[in-house]
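Inputs:
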Amino acid sequence: MSVEDDPAGDGDAAAPDAPSSLTMEDVAAAAGVSRTSVSRVMLGQKKVSEDTRRRVFAAADRLGYVPNVLASELASRGTSTIGLLLRDAANPAYGLLFTQLQEAAHAADLTLVSMTVTADNRGQRQVAGLHRLMGMRVGGLIVATGGVTSEQLEPFCSRIPIIRAGRPETTEHIHAVSYDEVHAGRTLAEHVADAGHRDVAIVVTAEGDSYPEFVRGTTMAATLAGRGVRIIPVPVGAGPRGGVDEAVALATEGRVSAIMCPSDLRQLEVLRSLAAAGVSVPGDVSVTGCDGVLHGADLLGLTTYRIPVEQLAVRTVARMAELLAARPGAGVVAERLPGVLVPGRTVGPPSSRKEP
Amino acid sequence: MSVEDDPAGDGDAAAPDAPSSLTMEDVAAAAGVSRTSVSRVMLGQKKVSEDTRRRVFAAADRLGYVPNVLASELASRGTSTIGLLLRDAANPAYGLLFTQLQEAAHAADLTLVSMTVTADNRGQRQVAGLHRLMGMRVGGLIVATGGVTSEQLEPFCSRIPIIRAGRPETTEHIHAVSYDEVHAGRTLAEHVADAGHRDVAIVVTAEGDSYPEFVRGTTMAATLAGRGVRIIPVPVGAGPRGGVDEAVALATEGRVSAIMCPSDLRQLEVLRSLAAAGVSVPGDVSVTGCDGVLHGADLLGLTTYRIPVEQLAVRTVARMAELLAARPGAGVVAERLPGVLVPGRTVGPPSSRKEP
DNA sequence: CTGAAAGCGCTTACAG
DNA sequence: CTGAAAGCGCTTACAG
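Outputs:
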């Protein structure tokens, strides 16, 4: 059990010139076999005698040997691990996606190595993460952030399979498994229209800030317009409170009877603001969000749309496995997964005091 | 800009025997310099002529070359990247920690490569993740899961710096930066006692399931007992609803006037159950949780304790940076960071109908 | 079933 | 400032 067997006899980890890095050579010597045999045993290959196997494992355990993955992958020129480029996981939807992807990958016997990138001015950091992952020579790449553009991805998509997860791709060359944001926007908008609202504020996200949220907003607007509902778009991020205050003001003035948000986090902000202003929900104004992954959303009674995170993770990993097995350049796929409306207590019929 | 310069002239990525793997050799040839020079340029070393540098960069860009990190680290025998062993990020507190660690690492100019492990019977997967990371020869390791024991970590703590984050260490040899769970438990318990409760149910987590939650529960019990409050411990995970039903039953029967939970997620479960049973909070019964990282907790009015996630992340990364710079085996540290009570609307004075 | 040898793509003294 | 050469720790045909 001792880790400090230390063949060199130079005590502990203090030996300056003899790094604690055990190699296969050490194990081979300790086991009395060749380096090749050790390699075969560690690789789990069949053509090894039971005796050799036992001795190698014994020596490895005793020395605390862990094979150097770097050298291994370099020599065998190929990684089984696949890279995951993630967006700031502070967003609960991304956090869940992260977890689910890990789980799906494990189930598919794929090792994921991830790198989170936080948004910055020019996407510099995101690209750095991309290069880092490519430098690790991952066998495939899952991109779950909009921060990296298709153009930045393209140089590599002929080298390894790349799948964009959670966001539709604009390019033809890159695979994508995304949520059906159009369905989300339409479903929510129809729910609001069905409730009888005729004047609705829509908090819209800029295309560059979050493409998925942008699509939701656009779709909500189109759907509502198609139903003859008057809409007032409120761009988010404009004011200090990101357009929330403006939407709330519209409600306070009775100019709208409902506020549709592009995400649940935004919906929370609106609800806070409304509560502070003493406006009742859904008595005075109805509110909707989108995502459906917040803990306690049910207790809050949020009206939202649950995106199929688990399914997305499973589909993404499944496609990656397929691509890994197939020849590169096989047919590009673009899946879109619909979610489901979650009716809540934040939507009701329009209030009677609607007219200004 | 074209990536398909393809010197070999065998078109696209289809060439079966000529993998798309560009090497320094290719760049050297294209730039008309030696491999050594390319290396020096990519490494950003000073002793290179401006002309060489320019030509190398030009060639690299044109070919779409990304240095092979594996080979690089193998040759220079050392990684700058540090490994992060994470727990299932479905827990919102871990999700936040993950994000914050990434951010802190980036600020400290450290690259983090993470591996998430989901709980399993014997911690097999967790150990596999640990070995995988060690196999990548990371320069340091941050362990943010209780799934890996100190014993499993010890064999490696003389090789690289290892810090346990978010959970106190039981061993002397391993560094730890954790939340002050004792302070959390004490603070919450005193808040409840101060409100006048004399009969309290405490939902307790088993030591093996979550050590931090276990400490919280133990401390709450001790603190309450010290104040002369009668407590009824309800082990979590016992029944199908994990002890929640039992706690709620105690409240329904009027045997306790408050329920203290070891986490906010658990608190949410209790609140759901209470609502379903028609029990009012805090009218009939008060409820507390712990963590304070849930979105919308304020709207729900949860009474909780906010753990200092951001601070923990920063401290952990800072210590890692120190350890990386210092000699291994330097003084082991064990920091404990206190958080702050978040009073909410789920705690009030005990109801008058307390007696059964 | 087992070994000696070449090679994976880089870095790094060592001589120019 | 620049190159040729050795070596990082493994894997993998190739001969036994």
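Remarks. Residues 1-19 of chain A have pLDDT under 50 and may be disordered. Chain A touches chain B through 65 residues (CB under 8 Å).
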